[in-house]
Amino acid sequence: MNKRPLYFDYAATTPVDERVIKVMVECLGFSGNFGNPASSSHAFGQQARQSVEHARRQVAELVGAQAEQIVWTSGATESNNLALKGVTQARGVSGGHIITSQIEHKAILDTAKQLQDAGIAVTYLVPDAEGLITPQAVSEAMREDTFLVSLMLVNNELGTVNDIPAIGQVVRDRDALFHVDAAQGAGKVAIDLARWPVDLMSFSAHKVYGPKGIGALYVGPRAQQRLQAQIHGGGHEGGLRSGTLATHQIAAMGAAFALAAALFDEEKATIVRLRERLLDQLLSISGIRVNGSPTQRIPHTLSLTFNEGEFNSAALSTSIAFSATSACNSASNAPSHVLLALGHDARSASRTIRLSLGRFTTEQDIDQAAHLIKTATASAPAFWATGP
Q: For the segment 224-268, what is each residue's pLDDT rounded down to a tens digit?
């Protein structure tokens, strides 16, 4: 079997942690906790319900929320849809104004476009030169009829971190709701929803060493009566998201978030050290550029543009698993909308890679990746040195 490439695409997805797999497997099979959490009349259902509620508390604890404020979904994409469409439809009136940015995940941009087609005015804020959306930019874009602002905590391509508490205060002062896509932030940024002026926040398990297919939406007190369900059929999750709860996935998400809380400081310190080790070796490359704010960022995600010399990302991808754009864009070969919004042209966007580090990245991985990247970016040899 061919040797697998080095994995540097943790921002696209993470492997499920073995400790999480153990919790997940215990909810499968006849001897396991397989009951339907809605079957409250017998022990199988009651036990499953206990697991679901335990996981709800685990997710809430990582982000400073109350357990009853967490609604299970199939992932951050569904959470984003529920937040944007749910708030818009609950208003019961046409028109109105939403603010988002040009560098959001496609789950936000495509949903905003759909709402725009239905008659909602949408402002797409341009990031500053460091890839950040500033509180001032949000304040200037607010209108009398602005009812919702939706911005990400951590940008999936750049790793930049928006000042969500400051932006949230601007939004709250104008009585609009504030939704935050935190798929890339949970477990990497300290989130405190008990204090932050945020009304809705989206989470995903598979970015935090949990399984794919499960996520959550935090619904704060200001949003509870201003959100309309998108999936109907049984009134599960306080009427906000019907469907049989997937106990094994939910228990796994809870375990993954609890692990993230327990390992938070240690893991962050390790990733900072690994990132510095990588950059120490790469910054000697002529024409290299690190995209996004150098300070307001997570250490896990690096966007690097190689402006000079030869650069063949396709050749590099056989030995390193990285992203040439975000995974949500990878189905098309279009240049990254995030990089274009930052002022890149198509050429420099095509010479940009995203490297993202994670729990299982080693120093050896870093050193091997640095060597491979330096080799791939070395200028082509002179024609007389290439031999026959």
A: 999 999 999 989 998 899 999 999 999 999 999 999 999 999 999
Close Cβ partners of 282 (under 8 Å, ≥ 6 residues apart): 288, 304, 370, 373, 374
| Residue 248 and residue 288 in one domain | no
Whole-structure pTM over 0.90, yes or no? Answer: yes
In a domain, 1, yes or no: no
211 and 272 housed in the same domain: no
**328 included as an active-site residue:** yes
Catalytic, out of 328, 340, 341, 372: 328
Q: Which domain holds residue 271?
A: 6-12+264-378
